[in-house]
Amino acid sequence: MLGVLHARRLYDDKKVEEAREKGIEFEFRPDVKASFLRILPLRSISRAWGFLMSVDIPVWLRPHVYRAWARAFHSNLEEAALPLEEYASLRDFFVRTLKEGCRPINPNPYSLVSPVDGTILRFGKLNGAGAMIDQVKGFSYSVSSLLGASPLLSMLAEKNTEDDGSTIEQESTQREQSKKSWWRVSLASPKVRETISECPMKGLYYCVIYLKPGDYHRIHSPVDWNVLVRRHFSGRLFPVNERATRTIRNLYVENERVVLEGLWQQGFMAIAAVGAMNIGSIELFIEPELRTNRPRKKLIPSEPPEEHLYEPKGVGVMLKKGDEVAAFNMGSTVVLVFQAPTSKSPKNNDASEFEFSIRRGDKIRVGEALGVWHA
């Protein structure tokens, strides 16, 4: 099985690399496989696969299994914090911690670092809270559909609108007027209002990072920030590899995901951890009781996302740059949406403006800078 997966991965990676060298960008094009996936019980299949991955492996066999996995998916076993014999199951091995010092965090206080090991798929600047993010050439999805109804982002958008007199496009949602949960009301607390009022003009940016099966699968904090709310969407569990992004509509919006929102020194910050086929589980270290990929009574999810406020007074959970936040079981994707310094005029090349230091297709590791700005 590992041999077949390895051969297929090498073939797919070679096609993608050849296309990039020729300057070819794949376009969105639904296929039969994408339609077939919609009728499969992917959540049940993922739970069954998760059970198999959690079965204890005999101690004598563990090093052989993990080395085979490492060869198939290019994992670096020298970075593992424990001897291979101590990982009881493939699941334990998959979410393993690393030796201290393997992921140094960029010390520049004016840098935003990668929260995960992975491949840069997309990044750029957004035109407001209702802007669209490219999934692939020819298809996009909105920020609000990814993050859900976000009063915090709306409040910041309104603040920026008042500052420069511009109009920010916003997507209306069915829940904004019909339901107001208690955490939304609490976001109007003086502490949050005061923080937002102190934020100067900021631009809204995004970055999409794909984690392959061989990558380190823990999520770290990209900056010092206060996490105010967690939102859990119980959706589907499509695969999230590069072929899936080219063939499945609204891939990240339809898949199960956990969204963390809060504030950092430059304004709004959100991390969307998107689940994927095979296990599909997302562990949240700041909320260990959270369970994802649970059985659902309804085949078509219509209920709003489950929301949880961290401390009603708006203080939230403080995370330092580089702190562990969550972990994926099997490959998946992280989407960052954040505010950062920007110039008010597109013609003004302001030295303090946030600039990405990455390119599409780059391999990146936890702690390496995604972008920098100047004071």
Task: Describe the structure in brief.
With 375 residues, the chain is of the alpha+beta class.
Describe this structure in words.
One of its GO terms (molecular function) is phosphatidylserine decarboxylase activity. Its cofactor is pyruvate. 27% of the residues lie in helices and 25% in strands. It contains 12 helices and 17 strands. Strands 2, 5, 7, 8, 9, 11, 12, 14 and 16 form a 9-stranded antiparallel beta sheet that branches. Strands 1-17-15 form a 3-stranded antiparallel beta sheet, with no helix packed on it. α1 packs parallel to α4. The protein is globular and about 60 Å long. The relative contact order is 0.19. About 5% of the residues have low confidence.
Task: Set out the fold topology.
Layout: H1 2-21, H2 32-37, H3 42-53, H4 62-73, H5 90-94, E1 111-113, E2 118-126, E3 132-136, E4 139-142, H6 143-147, H7 151-164, H8 174-178, H9 182-186, H10 190-198, E5 202-211, E6 218-220, E7 225-233, H11 242-247, H12 251-254, E8 257-264, E9 267-274, E10 282-284, E11 306-309, E12 317-319, E13 324-328, E14 332-341, E15 355-356, E16 363-364, E17 369-372
Antiparallel strand pairs: 1-17, 2-5, 2-16, 3-4, 5-14, 6-13, 7-8, 7-11, 7-12, 8-9, 9-14, 10-13, 15-17
Helix pairs in contact: 1-4
